[in-house]
């Protein structure tokens, strides 16, 4: 009570009975706890203490106090003692300053207590709570950090991306990661994104360091929209960890059950990637979905999109990758067997042989110009060129070989 009375400004605006009534109301509403401590002397009255019922309430009050003290003076180098070692309070104070347009990271505020990585961490945590207009102002800064190295990338995922992953229209959600990774080449992306999360430091490479297993531990909820955790999980299939790839494929297959429209939206976006491993895993998961359920007419749009995108003559994703082609065709065939009515004009492309017998493969002129009779032709050189390749290709040019085949005992007697 003495603390509450002394905090009044102007003093004595509320009487002691009014203050006690307010405290009791806060207690009844679960905002404050009233503790009664028995005195050491049995003849003395009990000692009553009031304290916030929630740690977050304490953190906010401390953050508000710090914010009020520094909002007009952002050059204070020393942090107030009551904030030290209170991570949530510091984060809330940075958030309150950010709402006013203050860039905590570039300021000199509390520089004696927070430097380097810790300063970045608090800015990222506060950024996840800011309104969209304030968040947008930090986009370039986050992008610069994102591909700096593996630990920083994982840190951004843990502190900024994952906390808002399931918030509608969250600026730094899975779509932000998609847009950041998509323009990169596979090799450029792999050095900070696809490797293990714990690699001992050696010579300062981007892939070295220690970080949390945020991608390895990311789980999908049944009601996740396609552009939240599923899209981020799709990008996680680029990992070099095959155990995690299997886990992700299984999780995506479970998530996609009875969601053909969501699955189609995910494939349309994620298959823009230039990473063949990611494409393979997405189609393996999609085919898995079709096997876990009995597809119905709601799968028709997905089937038609697959045929138009992969099997028509000028398909944008036409590929020779046998895993992608097999899974894509098998998904459509599974739907066809289950009664999905796919028109004949689409099925013609699906069942037509991929190789045109009248189409000759172009000669690699650069490779031909570098032929060496001794070493061979790249990549078939030395032992591979001397012993392995000749055994494989010479029968194609040996007429006696075909004659022996024609007179073989395995020949069909009806021919």
Count of helices?
A: 20
Decide which structural class fits the backbone: mainly alpha
Low-confidence stretches: 409-415
Order of helices and strands: HHEEHHHHHHHHEEHHHHHHHHEEHH
- Find the count of extended strands (DSSP E, 2+ residues): 6
Distance between the termini: 107 Å
Strand order of the largest sheet: 1-2
What amount of the residues lies in strands? under 5%
Helix share bin: 40-55%
Mean pLDDT comes to 87
If you compute it from the alpha carbons, what radius of gyration comes out, rounded to the nearest whole angstrom? 32 Å
State the shape: elongated
Largest sheet: 2 strands, antiparallel
How would you describe this protein?
By secondary structure, the protein is mainly alpha-helical. Among the domains are: 2-53, no CATH class; 365-406, no CATH class. It has helices spanning 2-6, 16-28, 55-70, 87-99, 116-127, 132-136, 139-146, 150-161, 174-181, 186-193, 229-236, 242-256, 260-270, 276-292, 300-310, 322-337, 344-351, 365-368, 383-393, 399-406, and strands spanning 32-37, 47-52, 198-199, 209-210, 376-377, 380-381. The strands form three sheets. A two-stranded antiparallel ribbon has the order 1-2. Helix 12 (242-256) packs across helix 14 (276-292). It is elongated, with a radius of gyration of 32 Å. The model is unreliable at 409-415 (pLDDT under 50).
């Amino acid at each position: 009570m003495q603390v509450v009375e002394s905090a009044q400004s102007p003093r004595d605006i509320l009487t002691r009975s009014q203050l006690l009534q307010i405290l009791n109301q806060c207690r009844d509403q679960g905002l404050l706890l009233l503790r009664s401590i028995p005195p050491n002397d049995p003849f003395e009255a009990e000692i009553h203490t009031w304290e916030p019922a929630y740690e977050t309430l304490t953190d906010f009050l401390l953050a508000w106090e710090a914010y009020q003290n520094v909002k007009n003076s952002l050059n204070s180098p020393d942090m107030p003692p009551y904030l030290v070692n209170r991570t949530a309070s510091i984060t809330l104070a940075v958030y309150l300053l950010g709402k006013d347009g203050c860039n905590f990271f570039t300021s000199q505020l509390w520089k004696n207590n927070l430097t380097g990585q810790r300063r970045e961490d608090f800015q990222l945590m506060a950024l996840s709570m800011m309104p969209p207009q304030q968040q947008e102002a930090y986009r370039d800064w986050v992008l610069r950090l994102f591909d700096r190295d593996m630990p920083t990338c994982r840190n951004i995922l843990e502190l900024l991306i994952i906390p808002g992953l399931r918030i509608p229209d969250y600026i730094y959600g899975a779509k932000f990661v998609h847009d950041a990774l998509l323009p990169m080449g596979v090799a450029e992306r792999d050095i900070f994104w696809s490797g293990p999360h714990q690699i001992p430091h050696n010579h300062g490479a981007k892939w070295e360091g220690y970080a949390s297993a945020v991608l390895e531990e990311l789980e999908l909820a049944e009601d996740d929209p396609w552009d939240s955790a599923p899209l981020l999980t799709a990008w996680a299939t680029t990992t070099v960890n095959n155990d995690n790839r299997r886990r992700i494929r299984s999780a995506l297959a479970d998530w996609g059950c009875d969601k053909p429209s969501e699955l189609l939206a995910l494939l349309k976006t994620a298959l823009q990637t230039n990473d063949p491993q990611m494409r393979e895993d997405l189609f393996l998961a999609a085919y898995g979905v079709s096997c876990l359920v009995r597809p119905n007419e709601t799968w028709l749009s997905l089937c038609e999109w697959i045929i138009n995108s992969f099997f028509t003559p000028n398909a944008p994703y036409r590929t020779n990758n046998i895993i992608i082609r097999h899974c894509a065709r098998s998904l459509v065939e599974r739907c066809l067997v289950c009664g999905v009515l796919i028109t004949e004009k689409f099925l013609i492309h699906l069942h037509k042989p991929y190789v045109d017998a009248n189409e000759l493969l172009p000669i690699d002129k650069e490779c031909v110009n570098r032929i060496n009779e001794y070493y061979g032709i790249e990549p078939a050189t030395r032992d591979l060129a001397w012993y392995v390749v000749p055994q494989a290709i010479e029968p194609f040019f040996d007429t006696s070989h075909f004659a022996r085949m024609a007179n073989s005992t395995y020949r069909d007697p009806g021919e």
